[in-house]
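Worked example 4.2. Below are the chains of a multi-component assembly; read each line carefully before continuing.
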Amino acid sequence: MSTLSAIDEHNDHHDHKPKGMMRWILTTNHKDIGTMYLIFSFLMFLIGGAMAMIIRAELYQPGLQIVEPNFFNQMTTVHGLIMVFGAVMPAFTGLANWLIPMMIGAPDMALPRMNNWSFWILPMAFAILLSSLFMEGGGPNFGWTFYAPLSTTYAPDSTALFVFSIHIMGISSILGAINVVVTIINMRAPGMSYMKMPLFVWTWLITAFLLIAVMPVLAATVTMVLTDKYFGTSFFAAAGGGDPVLFQHIFWFFGHPEVYIMILPSFGIISAIVPAFSRKKLFGYSSMVYATASIALLSFVVWAHHMFTTGMPVAAELFFMYCTMLISVPTGVKVFNWVATMWRGSLTFETPMLFAIAFIVLFTIGGFSGLMLAITPADFQYHDTYFVVAHFHYVLVTGAIFSIMAAAYYWLPKWTGNMYNESLGKLHFWASLISVNVLFFPMHFLGLAGMPRRVPDYALQFADFNQLVSIGGFAFGLSQLIFLVVVIKCARGGEKAPAKPWEGAEGLEWDMPSPAPYHSHTTPPVIK
Amino acid sequence: MSDEKKSRDASTGAALKSKNSVLMAKLFSAIVLMFGFGYALVPLYDVLCEVTGINGRLVNDNREASTAVDESRMVRLQFTTSVAPGMPWQFKPKVNYVDVHPGENTVVYFKATNQSNLAVTGQAVPSVSPGIASLYLNKTECFCFEQQILNSGESVDMGLVFFISPEIPQDIRTLTLSYTLFNVTQPISKPSGDLQAAL
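Applying the procedure described above to all two chains together yields the following structure tokens:
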């Protein structure tokens, strides 16, 4: 006992960390790094969102009025890159940093110095990417999927900057993923067996393996683009014996697991929040784990459903169609489990729960439109239309982003020690919910009517719906400023939060005081 | 070393640290492996295309004439041509299509004219649609087997000798053979951006 109290005194002493900027630059603390990831991702969310506002302003009316087509293309490209690599992925890594050590009873992440690096190279990557917009000839304008030859033969001179920024983002994600895997496998408190881990930890473990498997493939792809454009190789150039379709195969071999990287941690978040506000145990814990693992495995054999119109043999199209549809089975298991958890629970509807329920409903809509896109013959009609845009925004905005919002509201009291303002939170939720549907739902109809994606101008018959979509877009963008206000107010003060502010919440993080002490579980907790 | 680490060292420290390093090393080697796999997809894709005929890449350059002819049916082979950006040639098939019996050896010609005032080397790259039909289109002689050099203003008729395998499925009645001509005046390894600049 005496040694323990000595350690406690020691830690108290250690809490006097360097002041000012140096604290944040040198920190190896998982909470500091988690906070930086979350702030960074919100900043990127606002920058990427501002680009979306430019896109929607241009599309408010048919014809070209605000920006040049080439700049419009840069906006769609960089909006996609920033939201995927700058907003969603770092937000999940931030949540992982904050929560995984607390949830598994570890004092910190396993590799704290690497953790510091994996965060601090991220702002460099985005500084490089954003600076390319100001170069002569402009920034990347070939879509976030950077298909060759758009990204090789016809790409702007700044493409090398794009490639290097993707390299750095990739290294950052890989380091983060390694840290998560090592932490979860080696640092669990005694008695925390794999099947006792919270689902957020499970989903992140599987996500980290996906990252380790596919981020290097993305690095290989961009390296091939780099050498094709600047060093005379012909991976994707038909004249030299290469094949541009090969690019799509390699890219989507990365790209499809990537979309699950952006949704699996959401499943973990929702699986924590729904039981807490239903005051019931999660229905079907082990089926959730197996469903997550099957989604991850299936994600490696569906990539060509992004390429149905490239002229594949019918047998291959059928294979990828059926595999894609198969994914709806484990995903359905999850949705039914969440609904079954709420069934006959004593529900309350605080902001995290509202976002979680909206996630379940709207993510399912996105899943259904995905199922429609999976049908090969129908996909020939939907391919590259606004229907696809509607689909992936339903799964990424009302899916991934809503779950991140839910997580932020749910754990903010633990992070800051203060309760957030519930009425402002609810205002943020309802404003977001309504505007996001005004924004993305009409896109389904635009797509079915044949409006192509990635165009700065469109035929007159699409004008009314586009105006509606733009109004929804501006409203959704403004609604996110409410969230900024809520978080700032909550960080500054407010009603003090108890250790466990949510009656039905479960998990080791709620055994710690709020705000969570600088060092988590310095002595391993006892797992029942 | 931070105090917090020391506190872990007291109980589990050194053992945990080496366990972490071993796992980290394993994960890093997985990453190197997957980076290599990204590159390995390039030859894998070529092999897959050859075996399955995905993508309409012509693979049957066996250069041996056909012997058996299936006179019970006809297959139409259509020709289409294009020139890649930066290629100053006119390039057209002499006939737009031919109707042939499977197994019948046939000759067709394509006409190329160099419209620039420089000597230019061209390389034609074929593609067949539907992709699966590429397995049944056999070229015994083709101008695409080698590069062509045309002086300024020069024209040439380029021959293609082919037959369609009698094993071609009954439901394939029309094939399209497309050629794209690329300017390869500089060594092939130069990116086409430079080629355009050179013109």
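Take a moment to check your reading of the output against the notes. The radius of gyration of chain B is 27 Å. Strands of chain B lie at 75-83, 89-93, 97-100, 106-114, 120-129, 137-142, 148-150, 155-164, 174-183.
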